[in-house]
């Protein structure tokens, strides 16, 4: 199947927003207001788009029009230069309207800043200018549970070969992050490449129950060449990893950073479900007439008020925890981006445990809220036309990414023994 054969949404439907959002927001509050505007646009037909399951070309263009792809980028290249805690809140806001697009935004913000974490300062500057000045959307062919891509050295280039079962956003991306192992070394290399090239072949097989507009299907990588100069964090002369870039705890911040991306779109999806359900309850749910304490309106029903209050309280608590973790991580970046060796393993580990806590709580609360809202909306809310089911399907799909049981165990060792986790692909 070629790219032209894949059904896709039409970017022209969002043409008017290019002029409407021609200027970037200039404060943190304005950026979050922009994210809420995007969520409102997406929420208008989210259920229909979810069921149609078309490649989200239009939705990515909407993100480009909004400026949100540039939120973390340097101002000197046309970015918003906001810290990660604002990035996380923006992801959450977009996910309230459409979980798939909130996820795409989150993955993009992570992959577009990869060079800031594992690249040299020169690489980070060059790649940030490349991404932000072109308003590129970035996907990633990085799935640690698959076999690593094989990398071979060929003169001044490295060559990637292999396949990944999952590849979020790649089909609709401008750039793709590749990651693999250099032959006979065991050393990993990250690099960004242009997506539209013959050696990147998408399977177009993403047809899952949730997050249906994320294009998270498989990809084959065949003889994709990258200059050694673009091997993030590597010394081009010696062709070895730079100790001051890749052999320090700072480089491993990539993993807790994306784990907190996950938790924030879980939280946004759950908050969106509660908001969507509450509107449905007020307008369409009927009071139960056979309980012996009959009410005229569903909003007078004790069990409905009790459930909404309980869901609301737990989501508020999860949001407070997510904000605290976001602040902790943003502080590490602020303090150590210009002094990477200064970050200790203990500091990195303690922030990872804040983030693990958020993962546990948002998984538990998100699944509970997105399934529980049916109890307070009624049988008619199960109609596909209503689309309330998409919130649960979205959270259920991604919370299987890595078993939350291991996060609970990790937190148990931290609480009981004071042990911070060793960096891994999931911690």
TrEMBL record:
Domain Acyl-CoA dehydrogenase/oxidase N-terminal: from-to ranges: 31-128
The keyword Flavoprotein appears for this protein: yes
InterPro entries per the UniProt record, alphabetical: Acyl-CoA_DH_C, Acyl-CoA_Oxase/DH_mid-dom_sf, AcylCo_DH-like_C, AcylCoA_DH/ox_N, AcylCoA_DH/ox_N_sf, AcylCoA_DH/oxidase_NM_dom_sf
Domain Acyl-CoA dehydrogenase C-terminal positions: 260-401
Pfam families linked: Acyl-CoA_dh_2, Acyl-CoA_dh_N
Swiss-Prot/TrEMBL keywords: Flavoprotein, Oxidoreductase
Domain of life: Eukaryota
Molecular function via GO: 3-methylbutanoyl-CoA dehydrogenase activity; flavin adenine dinucleotide binding
Any one GO biological process: L-leucine catabolic process
Name the UniProt record assigns to this protein: Thermophilic desulfurizing enzyme family protein
């Amino acid at each position: 199947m070629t790219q032209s054969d894949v059904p896709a949404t039409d970017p022209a439907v969002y043409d008017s927003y290019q002029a409407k959002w021609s200027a970037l927001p200039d404060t943190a509050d304005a950026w979050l207001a922009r994210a809420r505007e995007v969520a409102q646009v997406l929420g208008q037909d989210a259920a229909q788009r979810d069921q149609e399951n078309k490649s989200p070309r239009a939705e990515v263009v909407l993100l480009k029009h909004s400026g949100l792809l540039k939120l973390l980028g340097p101002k000197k290249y046309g970015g918003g230069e906001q810290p990660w805690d604002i990035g996380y809140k923006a992801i959450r806001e977009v996910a309230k309207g459409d979980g798939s697009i909130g996820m795409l935004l989150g993955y993009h913000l992570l992959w577009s800043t990869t060079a800031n974490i594992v690249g040299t300062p020169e690489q980070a500057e060059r790649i940030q200018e490349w991404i932000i000045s072109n308003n590129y959307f970035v996907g990633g062919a990085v799935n640690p549970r698959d076999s690593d891509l094989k990398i071979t050295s060929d003169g001044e280039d490295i060559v990637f070969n292999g396949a990944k079962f999952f590849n979020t956003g790649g089909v609709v991306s401008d750039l793709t992050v590749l990651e693999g192992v250099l032959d006979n070394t065991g050393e990993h290399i990250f690099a960004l490449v242009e997506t539209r090239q013959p050696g990147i072949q998408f399977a177009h097989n993403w047809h899952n129950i949730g997050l249906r507009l994320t294009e998270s299907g498989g990809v084959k990588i065949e003889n994709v060449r990258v200059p050694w100069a673009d091997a993030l964090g590597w010394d081009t002369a010696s062709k070895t990893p730079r100790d001051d870039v890749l052999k320090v705890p700072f480089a491993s911040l990539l993993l807790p950073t994306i784990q907190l991306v996950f938790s924030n779109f879980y939280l946004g999806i759950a908050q969106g479900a509660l908001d969507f359900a509450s509107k449905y309850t007020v307008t369409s749910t009927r009071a139960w007439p056979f309980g012996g304490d009959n009410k005229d309106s569903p909003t007078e029903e004790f069990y409905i008020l009790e459930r909404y209050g309980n869901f609301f309280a737990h989501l508020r608590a999860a949001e407070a925890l997510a904000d605290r973790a976001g602040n902790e991580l943003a502080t590490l970046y602020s303090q150590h981006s210009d002094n990477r060796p200064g970050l200790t393993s203990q500091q990195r580990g303690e922030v990872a445990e804040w983030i693990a806590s958020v993962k546990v709580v948002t998984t538990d609360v998100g699944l509970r809220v997105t399934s529980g809202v049916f109890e307070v909306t009624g049988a008619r809310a199960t109609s596909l036309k209503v689309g309330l089911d998409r919130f649960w399907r979205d959270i259920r799909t991604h919370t299987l990414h890595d078993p939350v049981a291991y996060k609970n165990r990790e937190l148990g060792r931290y609480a009981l023994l004071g042990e911070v986790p060793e960096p891994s692909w999931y911690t």
